[in-house]
Specification:
Blueprint: H1 2-28, E1 32-34, E2 44-46, H2 47-102, E3 103-107, E4 113-117
Antiparallel strand pairs: 1-2, 3-4
């Protein structure tokens, strides 16, 4: 029952949008307007074409801005990843150096090399 109501509501809203768009096109397709876009350039066009091109320009601008933010986000993520990898490499190097410093080989009286821990061994 609720699904039918939801579908009918969507259908009615879509139909009203299509009707409004048709009325908009009919009423504005013949109305002339002069559009200023640069000094000395004011071409004559209709309100419909002006609105359509403004809408298309807005869509293109929105897509470009979203793409730009995505690229900025990727650069930030890449920088953070590089910093993390560098810190991990530095930490591994420090651990390797610390492991080398903790034990040193010594020779016993028998001539056998034995590892002795400097910290307590």
């Amino acid at each position: 029952m609720w699904i039918k109501i939801k579908n009918w509501t969507k259908g009615i809203i879509f139909a009203l949008g299509v009707i409004y768009a048709a009325i908009f096109v009919y009423n504005n397709s013949g109305s002339p307007v002069s559009f200023w876009w640069w000094f000395g350039h004011t071409p004559q066009t209709t309100v419909f074409y002006l609105a359509a091109f403004a809408f298309a320009a807005g869509v293109i601008f929105t897509l470009l801005v979203r793409m730009m933010w995505g690229t900025v986000r990727q650069f930030r993520k890449m920088g953070a990843s590089n910093r993390t990898e560098k810190l991990e490499r530095e930490m591994a190097d420090m651990k390797a150096k610390a492991a080398m410093l903790q034990s040193k080989p010594t020779t016993s009286s028998d001539g056998v090399t034995v590892q002795v821990d400097q910290l307590g061994g």
